[in-house]
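pinned: reference chain
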Amino acid sequence: MKIKRVFRVWQRHFTVYTKLYKSSIALNFVEPVLYLAALGLGLGAFIREINGVPYIKFIAPGIIASSSMFAAIYECTYGTYIRMTYQKTFDAILATPVNLDDLIAGELMWGATKSVMYGTVIIIVISLFGLVDSPLIILAIPVLFITGLIFSEISVIFTAVIPGIDSFNYFYTLLMTPMFLFSGIFFPLDSLPPVISKIAFFTPLYHLVNICRAFASGQIAIVSGDLLWVLAVAILLSPYPFRLMRRRILK
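pinned: its structure tokens
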């Protein structure tokens, strides 16, 4: 694997994105802003505070995390599958000096990049609305890349093993939706049965929400465990997208 060739794959995706970004923004940016407005302002009229924090301020950092997650996941599930199966983009790229490992690494890097892009936009938006108490929120940006890499790895792994594009329904319904709802974005998990918190601990979104919320309030010290978790999982998952995609493409 060569960094230059990985960058060329990333550059190809970025160039395509610059031509299609308007439709992508509608999916990855408007939706989280609507969640923030509808729940933060609507439900926030009934739930004044959680743990001494106004409800809209409580959920705002979680919206950063969820927007970041879905940006990477949409890109590396449907995006990767369509490039691989329907558009035959993978075939065209592999006809160049780029090898399969370069290609998969480029897919993962692009997914993590989109995670940072959309998470950063939400950081700017909630900061402009006064929903962030500390400038330390900027420290969440490199974490968005690491967790974006995790979400990209999970997505590429699933993309490598599904029989057809319709199978993504299982991925979103059985994995992504429960993770979105039970990651602590909208309510503290300690209000639920302890088994829910234990399951949530093994999901990357739960840790990203904790990190974003801590940085937004200026409490860095409390997230050292979450940071170690995301670093460890990003490393542990890293070989599997390459192995499984190689098996799929070369079979």
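why pinned: The first strand starts at residue 49 and ends at 50. Residues 20-250 form one domain.
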